[in-house]
Records
---
Amino acid sequence: MRRKYLIAGNWKMYKNRDESREFICELARSFDLVPGLTVAVFPPFVGLAGLRDLDAKIKIGAQNMFYEEKGAFTGEISPSMLQGLVDYVLVGHSERREIFKESDADVNNKVKAALRFDLSPVLCVGETLQERQAGMTEDKLKNQLEKALQDVKKDEMDRIIIAYEPIWAIGTGLNASPAQAQEMHHFIKGVWQEMGGGQDLTILYGGSVKPENGRELLAQDDISGVLVGGASLKVEQFSAIIHHGAQLLDK
Ligand code: PGA
């Protein structure tokens, strides 16, 4: 099977509408697409409209959404409102789970809503430092996957992307080693297949990915891309990670 990479940038609560537009134009000039390479950015909601039309080289994702289509849900954005604006939507990022108290049931509803509205969910899973130190990483990941995918039809599973993001590695500068990340990706693939999912699951690694460690992480067998936070906010840094992916595909 030919190798593919998705290099994705999660901008979190950074960049307003104008900054988002400028960034995308500059980023698009900084790299060439090669077969198998997909590049995506996940800007804040207010910047999303019109971004998809700026450059076909760069796909767009949302960082969150609610699962109802419409109604009295002040402050929320529905999946149907994202249709036509984005290709992907992040679901269950650890900051949503921890700061905004999203439950496994919320995450499950969001995954199903994204699929219903033809958006590709990027489902985030990952363990805390305490869970890792207590030897509970695999249990945590399996449990998060099972709960997030409850009642998802098998034939819809291939539209889901997984992001493995160990919480202790997010924004800390402390990335999982390539070997640690590979081990968890392999484990997730196994659980995925036990649950009825297909062979070529896209699993992104996220957590302090930088130009300096991006290449070695991307070179691992079961790592099919990266979800980059801090280093996706600067064109040179994000572009350097994209170039690692392009070079590895070119080999
Ligand atoms: P980071 O964030 O690269 O800044 O660690 C990753 C993420 O939260 O998706």
Note: The chain has one domain: 5-249.
---
Amino acid sequence: MDVDEFRVRGKEMVDYICMYMNTLRKRRVTPSVEPGYLRAALPSEAPMHPEPWDDVMGDIESKIMPGVTHWQHPHFHAYFPAGNAYPSILGDMLSAGIGCIGFSWAASPACTELEVIMLDWMGKAIGLPPAFLPFEEGSKGGGVIEGSASECVLVSMLAARAAGIKRLKHQFPTVDEGLLLSKLIAYCSKEAHSCVEKAAMISFVKLRILQPDEHGCLRGETLKEAMEEDEEAGLVPFFVATTLGTTSCCSFDNLPEIGPVVRKFPSVWLHVDAAYAGSSFLCPEHKYHLAGIEYADSFNTNPNKLMLTAFDCSLLWVTNKYLLTSALVVDPLYLQHCYDHTAIDYRHWGIPLSRRFRSLKLWFMLRSYGISGLQKYVRRHCELAKYFEQLVRKDSRFEVVNQVKLGLVCFRLLGSPDENHETVDELNKKLLSTMNASGKIHMVPASVRDQYVIRFCVVYQHATREDIEYAWDTITDFATELLEGPDKERDLNEERARRHRAALAHKRSFFVRMVSDPKIYNPAINKTPPPMPTSPGTPPSVAPASPDTPSEAGSIQLVPSTPKQSSWISWPLAFFFQSVDHDANDLPLRFRHLDTMVRLKSPNHGRRGSSPGASPERRAPSPSAN
Ligand code: PLP
């Protein structure tokens, strides 16, 4: 394709996108294809000779589109919004056109400098404290665009891990880093996004997952108890991940309580994940959610969720860029340049070397909407969710199960009073799967207070009250059919049997996967018993529920000193050991891992008793060399 043809085809492509946007309503929201549909429709090898452009484009409509889930569809209410405003699409287009790779300042100075400035504009607009901003007097802070919120969490954890190991190494210079690593423990709420657990797996650290309160909010006291208990047990708290706007139910952790707790422990890194909610802080009326942010070391948000910006655009700010970059720096000769002491080289701020000119998207978005235009969008988004909430509350067959603060409403059918918890869950699963299968609307479930709920998110950029009413009419039509249809009981039984047969397939299914619920990817969490009260003064014990539980599981439940807290620890690489042959091991694997850890701590003392958790060695105050 030469430049003249590109000019023509480029305009045609814009026309095609406009046609797509304008006719979205006529399409099903979700495709009705089976896995492998596309392989059957395409040749098994790449063409040897060039094909006419019109043929290639023609196949988009006939072959690709039937398998597309239309995230920009007015009836798509799943997950969170996937920003896609035209100025950001044009920003992406220009970035592709310029085609520079901005890994260092010298590799394309404008690419780096615009990113620094856009992060400064954004940080100020959402109300981050000066410590996060690059140009403030005495600030060591700054921001960067990463590929996803998961990456933001991971690099923050890696930076905290490096700082934690460095500190321990200073204290215990002769102890091997591997042993020091085994002492580190991170924390998050059960409501945190699964990317925190993934980050812990990659970082090879333990993660203690804590029970939030009844509103899905992690409280300071819960964190304090857990951190003190672990410190007492010889572990070293190093990272706390909090969330403002959780994925399941858009709850907010209590930063003003958590911050002071974290600060009581030496050098613990506090991260705040506001992937969805962060853009709402552009509005003064939502800024109160940022209370306590002054305690944080890092903060991330995705303008590609609630700020209309096309994926990918995940913003991460830190208060100490040196801690971040010292964890990620590698500096071969071919990447060095004569300004590397005075300019930022973003390759040290993340995992990949190569990076696109993503700040152009923010440039076009911020300038063409202005903060006021973005505020207007956020406000309409929240108002429509409130409207949907009102509609649900008016229908006595349903309940709303979350506090609706932004654009997410979690609701469920109540079922009849004689129906038990499981039957009501089944009823809601049935309702959701029928609606999704119809192609008329798309939502996903979540688990809120251990109940199966349906998440309704306002997603469509130009959503109106009519769209919300359409959604509610569709939901209530399906609900009426389900509740008053002729064979409700038989239907439910059939559904249960079908689910049982297809359990594995279901776990993988796009339509029924829970959002950010550790139970879904970690079956052990379902199996761990409720917390057992122990007598006062009893040391915390690590208690596999039964000999076979831990090797099946990705976690071990900590029996807490008070019955109110239930939490579990995710162990690095636990999943790799799931298929371990139980008979070949006298102790389950992770149990033995812990045992190894205990013995490393205190080589001169033999194991006392069969429970490592109850052994005094586990309570050793600090790591020691073997
Ligand atoms: N954190 C929160 C609170 C989220 O809601 C999500 C996704 O919805 C993520 C992290 C992961 O986002 P990403 O897909 O950008 O990694």
Note: Confidence is low (pLDDT under 50) at residues 504-516, 523-564, 578-626.
